[in-house]
Amino acid sequence: MGVISPIETLFLKSQHRLLQPRDYSYPVVSHKTQRVANFPHRSFSFLSLGSSSVDFPLRSDLILQNGRLSFPWRRYVSESESAEVYNEKVSIMEVLKKANSFIPHVILSSTILALLYPPSFTWFKPRYFVPGLGFMMFAVGINSNERDFLEALKRPDAIFAGYIGQYLIKPLLGYMFGLIAVSLFKLPTPIGAGIMLVSCVSGAQLSNYTTFLTDPSLAPLSIVMTSISTATAALVTPMLSLLLIGKKLPVDVAGMVSSILQVVVTPIAAGLLLNRLFPRLSNAIKPFLPALTLIDMACCIGAPLALNIDSILSPFGATILLLVITFHLLAFVAGYFLTGLFFSKAPDVKALQRTLSYETGMQSSLLALALATKFFQDPLVGVPPAISTVVMSLMGVSLVTIWKNRKE
Description:
This protein has helices at 79-97, 103-116, 119-122, 129-142, 146-152, 156-183, 189-200, 206-214, 219-231, 233-244, 253-277, 279-285, 289-307, 309-312, 317-342, 349-361, 365-375, 383-407; strands spanning 29-31, 34-36, 43-44, 54-55, 57-59, 63-65, 68-70, 75-76. By secondary structure, it is mainly α. The strands form four sheets. Strands 1-2 form a two-stranded antiparallel ribbon. α6 (156-183) crosses α16 (349-361), α8 (206-214) packs parallel to α18 and α13 runs antiparallel to α18.
């Protein structure tokens, strides 16, 4: 129809730097009853992409045609509009990187959903827990380096303190609460045995990830602590169970070693190697890991709750829930304040307190549940470990939220 379209040539330099295009002018042209106005030159630039500026003809302004306003098919995009598109892309990446800030919302949502509609998580079977926790450890490994673990090994006093928290403080609390359950609350003896059993097992791998979220520099120290407690559980757990419960439980040594390799060693080694050998690929993956681990965490928290909903809703459920919450709470508190007492002169005492609090308060309740199912005839023994799996996870991740907010 005679309308002159703007030239749409855009010269781009490598790595997103913009070249200055030639100056194109758009004259006023008359064609019968149609008049096309001269296009204004509007400059546009991305400071983050380079110092060059470029005219960017993409859309059109209103033009008078036969006494009426019409919309030619393109006009210039203003600087603010173009920057808005760019910033939108940047903001998406920032949201992915900061996905961990949504942890409290994910905890609450997965808990409510698992309680109201258990089938939403029952598909996440116990066999998926190992790869689920392994993925969290991979996220820790890819954000660490070998020097971090070498530095962790230079703190034997902290490692020993974590071991004492796991196999001395926690068993004493477990024995005390087991007696309270039977003598004070008049619960069946197997319930008390189940609480004691929870206190006899090794540390939870989830404590490594919670430490990473709160104090990334101490995540390797947490991993070393948990690995040592898990490796020695084959000897310590049967002895503690015999001492506290009166029943010696044989623990699968090969299974323990396999668990450490699958959940801790292999994923962390894979993350470290990827970071060293393929840094570009590692940097490309890192922004997406917080969001993916958040989904993974939702499944690891919601699934035990959904799978053990019958135990939680049992006649003794409310009382056991109260005892288990208090048991874990005192363990978290003991780990925190005893660390502050014995390591008061450490330069990173607050971070160390948080790390040892996680180590003392979080036990491998899934291992306790497996032992209860395999070696005890009474199914009530498995109720406290089942409830502990949920309570421990929720309390640990809730502490992440509290401590991260205080640090910020």
